[in-house]
Every structure is written in C-alpha cells, then in structure tokens.
Design brief:
The structure is a single chain. The longest helix has about 35 residues, at about 55-85. The chain has a five-stranded mixed β-sheet. It has a five-stranded parallel β-sheet with strand order 4-3-2-5-6. Helix 13 crosses helix 15 (about 375-405). With about 525 residues, the chain is α/β, with parallel strands linked by helices. It is built from 19 helices and ten strands.
Length: about 525
C-alpha cells in the first residue's frame, strides 16, 4: 500500500483549497470549482462587461508592447546572468571568474531561475556546457526542444473556447526570451560566431487526441493558429513548430511504427485489465485508493502514483460530446450543468443500477430537461467513466513510447537540449508563465489575465475562466474584420472568445484605456 486515505492532502475532497504537484497541469481546477464565491458570467453579463478592441489596435499596440517587454527582459537579464556565471565559476572547474566564456554564460542562462522551474539539481551543468561548446565550435545552432501546446482545452470552467489567446502568445514570448538571451550573449562575447539559438516545439495534441476525445479539426486549427502567431510575433527565426506524432512516425518508419503500436496496445491491455475493474463511480474515494494501491507503473516520487494524479485533471479536460448536445436540445445552460456535475464528482446525486445507467445511455437525449437527479447522476458517471478510460489510453500512449525508447524526444533529437514543463531529472524545467506561484495554469488550460503588480506595472498571468470571472474581471474581445478573416484574431472574434481579461483593479473600461495601460506599463519580469 503506497498511501492511505486518512492522509488529509492525498486526495481531492469537496472544499479542498490548495495542492502542490509538479506533474499535474490542471490540478488547480478542483479548488476553483469548489469555491462557491466564483460564478461564470451569463451571456448577458459577458456582453455587458466585455471591452471590444480592433484587430489593428491589437496588432499595432498590444503586440509591440509584448515584443518590447520581451526585449527588455533580454537586455536587462543578460548582464545579470553573466555576473551570476562569474560568481559560480567554480561549478565549471574555472578558477578565475574572469575566464568564464560565452559557453558558461549560456549554460547559466538556460538554468537561470527566471526561466527554470524545478530544482537546479535536476540538470547537469557540465553536460549542458559541453553540448553548447560542441555546437559553437562547429558553428551550429544551439537547439532546444520541448513538447508543448497540444490544444486549447475547451471545457466551460477553463476557457471560453479552443482558439489560442494571449496565454499562448505569452508562452511563445517566454521561449523568445530564452533564445534572445543566448543570442545576445553570442553577439556580445563571440561576434564572429554563426551559432544562434533555436527552440523546437513538438505539439503533442495529436498524440493524445483520441484519449481526450478532441476532434482532428480542433487540433489542426490550434496548430495552424500557433504557426500564425509565431510568424506574426516575429519569432520565426528562433522558434520552430512541428507535430510530435508526425516527427515520431517519420523517424520510426513502417516497421518501427508497427512495433510502437503493438507496444501501446500491450500497455493499454495491461492498464485496462488492472485499472478498469477498480472503478466504482458510487464510491470514488475507494476507487482512487485502489488505483493508488494497484498502479502497475507508479511514479515513486508521488504518493498517489501515476494513474490518480493524471485522472483527476482529466476530469476537467475530457471533452464530453453528449452533455453539450443534451443542453442544446433542452435549452439547459451548459456551463451551469457542467459545473454542478463536476463539483459532485466524489458525491453521487443518487444511486443508479448498471441496468438503469444503460437505459439512460440509450435514451438520455429524449429525456426532458427537468434536471432530475437521475439525469445529473448519469452525466456524472458518464464523465467519470470516460475520464477513467481516457487516463488508461493516455498512459498507454506514454508507456508505449517509453518501452520503444526511453525518451522519444531525446532519442530523436540527441543533439538538442531537452526541456520539459514537468520538472524532472535530466531535463530542464521550463517556467512558462513567470508567475510567482509557478506554472499552475498552462496556456492551453486557461485564459490570460492582465493584472497589476506590486511595483505599479501590469503583467499577464494564466488563470481558469471560472476564477477570473469569479473575480469580476472584464473580458477583452476582438472586433471582427473582414480583411483578416481566417486568422486566429478573426476566429476569436467570431467565437466571442476573449483574447484576455482585465483585472477590475486596473479601472479600465474602454479599448483605448486597455491599449494605453498595456503600452505604458506592461512588464514580463518575474516577481517572486
């Protein structure tokens, strides 16, 4: 037995307010959901509160402000990193601080606390230094690689749509800061070098789309939008973007792909045989404890193993098709019913026999919208069962790749420096948000929030849609423009999805005021 249900912080329970867990990108959602002070806006409230900004103003005012803020980080952080390198010269076996070179400074930049999350001990400075030295000696690119940006999670409590917004722009800007510091070091210390930094993003939306029930059109549209933003932001020289599945498939060839799929099928069968019998949606606390005790490949660094920490955020990530159809047919507010159901994941509305559950599965769309406990319990169990199965599929995909090669990304890109958003040994943890609380909300799991800092500046953070609307923030949307139809900006406009939200403490109510405060006061510096 790996842990015990009596441990107060081991499992979610109604009213849980805080959690810390490095491997979970959506762990924040349960605490937000259980906060009864938070409520989503009705459509009327949203329309009354929103500030509409033109595409021209966004591209000509907001985007340059972001670019200028990125450049400010590069200009101000680089000399500090150089100074830190001289202070840490012994780490590199250098006895004279004045003899550190661009190689050591770049190594220090990659591990700088402004850009890194997780303990410094996860990374070997000398190994990274030697890799950088080799690239520079050969006049090659210093290449960094990270799996990122699968697709925007389209569930009511997290986002108001599936289109990239300022949250993704901020993440891309973080990568531009990392490469910008490296390139500034090269230009100042080795102006004769042709080496430059390049970040390769491996988008893994296709890798998990089946598990999470995300349609092909949605994944592809998200990737196309990210590509568009990389170009529009002027980051295309230092940030490259490609599809994880395409890269792995091309690398393996026909025989390797057949072996990969066989390993994934074997992993799925093992997880299915082990974990599926443990699920009892009427007693979720026991199900979770049993899953911890029987996890076939637990994460030894986590008391809950591997299955349970993944299952809990998938509850808020899995895109259920049936509930929206039901709500649309019977004119039921989808976001309200979704929230009521997800807030009762560990607390059944009523008891349903398996035969009753099967009957409802066949007839649910024909049952009137009376919000009966039977209907809500059906959707609660339906989401739990699909999320449990999604967790099995997700882990089978991961294990299949790990059985084929220890780390697919490192195997395919052996000369790249490996980054991760989940801090772990042997990889550099990437701090994607710059939040003093760490990366609780990744760009694709939430919305962007413009807030004041303690130093009378403003910065963008990521939060859940429920949290930001619960705090009364104003949504900033994009006015439609026929001339740019088909771009991410016009798609945001047509979907009435916010580009970001503005904290009501900023006291701005018009598009002109939003542009003015961003242009004059935006910062991307990390305040911890």
């Amino acid at each position: 037995m790996r842990t015990n249900m009596n441990q107060a912080d081991s499992f979610y329970s109604p009213g849980l307010q805080s959690r810390e867990e490095a491997v979970i990108s959506a762990h924040f959602m349960h605490a937000d959901n259980m906060n009864t002070d938070f409520n989503l806006y009705t459509q009327e409230e949203f329309n009354n509160k929103k500030i509409e900004i033109t595409q021209d103003d966004f591209l000509n005012t907001i985007v340059p402000a972001v670019q200028n803020s990125v450049q400010s980080v590069i200009e101000k952080r680089t000399p500090q990193i150089a100074q830190n390198t001289r202070r840490h010269h012994d780490d590199y076996g250098i006895h004279d601080a004045n003899k550190v070179t661009a190689v050591e400074i770049i190594t220090e930049a990659l591990l700088d606390y402004w850009f890194r999350k997780g303990p410094l001990e996860n990374s070997n400075k000398l190994f990274i230094r030697d890799k950088i030295a080799k690239h520079i000696a050969n006049d090659e690119k210093i290449q960094l690689v990270v799996p990122l940006l699968p697709n925007k999670v389209d569930t009511p409590l997290k986002t108001r749509g599936a289109i990239p917004c300022m949250a993704e722009i901020s993440l891309l800007s973080r990568l531009a800061e990392v490469t910008g510091v490296i390139n500034k070091v090269l230009s100042e210390y080795m102006p004769e070098s042709n080496s430059r930094a390049e970040f390769l993003i491996l988008a893994d939306g296709h890798r998990f789309q089946d598990a999470l029930n995300v349609g092909e059109e949605k994944v592809q549209a998200y990737q196309d939008s990210i590509q568009w933003w990389i170009q529009a932001l002027g980051y295309d020289e230092s940030i490259k973007f490609t599809d994880y599945e395409q890269v792995v498939s091309l690398h393996l060839g026909a025989e390797g792909n057949a072996q990969r799929h066989e390993l994934m099928a074997d992993a799925y069968a093992l997880y299915e045989d082990t974990m599926s019998p443990l699920l009892d949606s009427q007693d979720m606390l026991k199900s979770l404890q049993d899953a911890v005790d029987n996890d076939p490949f637990p994460d030894e660094a986590n008391l809950e193993g591997r299955f349970v920490p993944l299952f809990k955020p998938i509850l808020y990530t899995y895109e259920d098709d049936l509930l929206p159809k039901y709500c649309q047919k019977w004119n039921v507010p989808y976001q309200d019913l979704y929230r009521e159901i997800t807030s009762r994941m560990y607390d059944p509305f009523t008891e349903l026999s398996d035969s009753k559950m099967q009957h409802l599965r066949e007839t649910i769309l024909g049952i009137g919208a009376d919000n009966s406990d039977d209907v809500k319990e059906f959707f609660r169990r339906n989401l739990i069962e699909h999320s449990w199965e999604a967790t099995i599929k997700y882990l089978a995909a991961v294990k299949g790749d790990r059985d084929l090669f220890e780390d697919p990304v490192s195997q395919i890109f052996p000369d790249h420096i490996r980054y991760t958003i989940h801090a772990k040994k042997g990889q550099i943890g990437l701090c994607t948000t710059g939040s003093k609380k760490g990366d609780l909300v990744q760009a694709w799991h939430g919305v962007s929030f413009l807030r004041p800092t303690k130093k009378n500046m403003i910065k963008f953070d990521n939060v859940s849609c429920l949290s930001v609307e619960g705090h009364g923030a104003l949504p900033v949307t994009i006015a439609f423009n026929d001339a740019t139809e088909g771009t991410p900006l016009s798609r945001l406009s047509q979907a009435d999805q916010p580009m970001f939200y503005v904290d009501k403490k900023l006291d701005v109510t018009t598009a002109e005021q939003v542009c003015d405060v961003v242009e004059k006061s935006m910062t991307r510096f990390v305040f911890r």
